[in-house]
Design a protein that fits this description.
Elements: H1 10-38, H2 42-53, E1 58-60, H3 61-67, H4 72-84, E2 88-92, E3 100-104, H5 106-126, H6 133-151
Antiparallel strand pairs: 1-3, 2-3
Helix pairs in contact: 1-5, 2-5
């Protein structure tokens, strides 16, 4: 039994390979800049950013994992590293003793604020300033459509760190 798979035409292939390449290169570039300038990974920066905009700078681990598109084990490991550096703290959720909350500490907020200019400069240099306003609009539209496919109809998650 053989299965026939529709091949991509030249336009489809160029778009797909371009997207895959950017998805592989951009995270490494963001990680490199943040590690060099601030001693944190892009994911750690993302976690701190989400907490910064959360009510009382606090979220349940499960909500934080969903917002950052992370698994609980990965997030727990990262929160342990952040906690050891004094950037976050964890404590039992008052509403549900089985759940754990994560809170951004004042030191974590300061680290995030210090990391922000270099991160924004890198985002501008690599993406924003390289595109025309029309291309930025097109990129926003394209990524919204793809995100909708990935989210499978669920409401859009917060993304304050982009």
């Amino acid at each position: 039994m053989t299965f026939q798979v529709a091949r991509m035409n030249e336009q489809e292939s160029a778009a797909w390979l371009g997207l895959v390449t950017v998805c592989q290169l951009l995270p490494a570039a963001l990680d490199s800049q943040l590690k060099q300038d601030s001693g944190m990974t892009h994911f750690e920066f993302s976690v701190l950013s989400v907490l910064r905009f959360a009510p009382d700078h606090t979220l349940r681990m499960t909500a934080l994992a969903e917002t950052t598109s992370s698994t609980l084990p990965r997030l727990s490991h990262v929160c342990s590293r952040l906690e050891k550096r004094g950037l976050t703290d964890r404590f039992p959720c008052p509403e549900d003793g089985r759940a754990t909350n994560v809170r951004l500490t004042p030191e974590g907020r300061n680290a995030l604020v210090r990391a922000m200019p270099g991160h924004i400069d890198t985002a501008r240099r690599l993406v924003v300033d390289a595109l025309t306003p029309e291309q930025l609009d097109a990129l926003a539209q394209v990524t919204a459509v793809i995100r909708g496919q990935l989210d499978d109809g669920r409401p859009a998650r917060g993304n304050p760190f982009a």
